[in-house]
Amino acid sequence: MADTGDRPISGIFGKVHLLHKQAVAGMPNAVQDALQFLKEARSSNPDNPILKAYHGSTMLLMARDETKPLDRLRWADSGLKLLDEAVNADSDNAVIRLIRGRSSFKLPEKQFQRSSTTIEDYKFVIDQERLGNQILDHQDYLRLMYETGELYYKIGQKQTAKNYWTSLKNKTSDSDFQRLLNMKLAQVEEQDYVEPEAEVKKPMSILISEAARVTGNELQYWANQFKQQEEPKKAEEPEPQPRGLNKRRRRRRRS
């Protein structure tokens, strides 16, 4: 049983945030631990919107890990219901809006139709950041801008997606992020992305490490590009000779 005891609400928030972070990262038993703690915490704070938001988000993590389709759908619906209730209770709370937005970002649009709501949440947080009410570091802010573009692209508003990604090009000097943005902008224009020839290539291991924040398709694209460039180099390398072969050849010549 979770030990919420007589903790002040600030202490409960700290524990919830830690458990939720571990659950998002996929640590063993973290989702169940977070869910149990939130049930106990909300039993004495049933109307607290932040706890309700974390509870709803954790239910979506349960849906993420569930293998049975019907159970997955039930967890997702229950989680979204709590998230919406939390926002309705305190719609000006940027933390709650961020929790709901981040929790809904990867949901399939066909089944849940949450992209427009997530855009509203993300834009609210972005506006708060611009007003100086900062809850994000610089990298998370850029990520939120990028994902907002992804959401607009998902619902067919390509020009708005392009505007977000174009504005990001002036906000970062990170070469990998710039490459990703160029690729996405080419995708909007339905053009093939061309890797700049003058750019210095990095080893595959470094690239993957730096690009860990990028989701599947982009990372796979970069991996394929490097693989294609490295294969011709391997073909040009001389085939290694079996150990001792050169010595035997020298002996034959002497005899």
Automatic annotation (TrEMBL):
<dbReference type="InterPro" id="IPR011990">
    <property type="entry name" value="TPR-like_helical_dom_sf"/>
</dbReference>
<feature type="region of interest" description="Disordered">
    <location>
        <begin position="226"/>
        <end position="255"/>
    </location>
</feature>
<feature type="compositionally biased region" description="Basic residues">
    <location>
        <begin position="245"/>
        <end position="255"/>
    </location>
</feature>
<feature type="compositionally biased region" description="Basic and acidic residues">
    <location>
        <begin position="228"/>
        <end position="237"/>
    </location>
</feature>
<protein>
    <recommendedName>
        <fullName>Tetratricopeptide repeat protein</fullName>
    </recommendedName>
</protein>
